[in-house]
Amino acid sequence: MSLDVLSSFNVFSAVPLDGSASYSEVASKVGIPEDMLRRILRQSMTQRIFAETAPGSGRIVHTAASAVFVKKPQWHSWVGHNVDECNRSVVRVVDSIRRYGDGDGEPGQTPFALAMYPDFPKETPWFQWAAQEGEGEKQGWRMRRFGEAMSVISSEGSFGSSALQKNYDWSGLGPGATMVDVSNLLSGLSLFR
After folding, report:
1. Residue 30: what are its φ and ψ, rounded to 5°?
2. How far is CA 190 from CA 14, 86, 113, 131, 177, in A?
3. How many distinct structural domains can be found in the chain?
């Protein structure tokens, strides 16, 4: 929840990379009531996302975990995509199964469509909806964010399976064994179909 708020209100950019800011300064920049922002940031600090210059100082500073979202804006897109589109979709899986069953393969009969664009025709694929989401210059913002989020996955080693491929004793499975990596399929494609 806190990461969703930090991303949606761009709290990361409201704290200087080289320095600190008070809760009231950050709250006024991002438009969140100070008491609420204080609670959200303190919860985030338990995960080492942001810190206070000293406990109880009321001055917020970046940690390595929070600074990455300013230094590498595509990471902000990755978090935004996951906490916005993916999280909303995941909580609609049961509703989607109850309503559509297997969905007959229609892109508008997925947990994602149910969460994000339930009033669109069932033939509407996610990419078509995302490309037209927004008004004026903002039109297509979700598609742009998705592209940046996918660039993180393709460029960062932590998302790949190379460590598993190198370090598991695959020969122990015996001759003719077949392994299929469905992790990306399960985490993303089934929601967007």
Report:
1. -100, -10
2. 35, 11, 11, 19, 25
3. 2
Q: How confident is the model at residue 62 (pLDDT cuts 50, 70, 90)?
A: very high
Q: Which residues in 8-143 belong to E strands, given as ranges? A: 21-22, 51-52, 59-61
For 62, counting Cβ atoms within 10 Å of its Cβ (0-12 exposed, 13-18 middle, 19+ buried), the class is buried
Is 73 within 8 Å of 32 (Cβ atoms)?
no
- Phi, psi angle pair for 182, to nearest 5°: -110, 10
User: Does residue 59 sit in helix, strand or coil?
Assistant: strand
Q: Is 164 part of any domain?
A: no
Tell me the pLDDT band of 41, cut-offs 50, 70 and 90. very high
96's CB contacts (< 8 A; 6+ apart) are: 103, 109, 110, 111, 114
Q: What are the Cα distances from residue 29, in Å, to 24, 49, 77, 90?
A: 9, 19, 20, 31
Measured CA to CA in angstroms, residue 148 lies from 48, 91, 143, 154, 179 at distances of 24, 24, 9, 10, 29
pTM of the model as a whole: 0.69
On whether residue 177 sits in a domain, the answer given is no
What range defines the domain where residue 20 resides?
A: 2-68
Where does residue 126 fall: left (phi above 0), alpha (psi -120 to 50 degrees), or beta otherwise? alpha
How many other β-carbons are positioned within 10 Å of the β-carbon of residue 81? 21
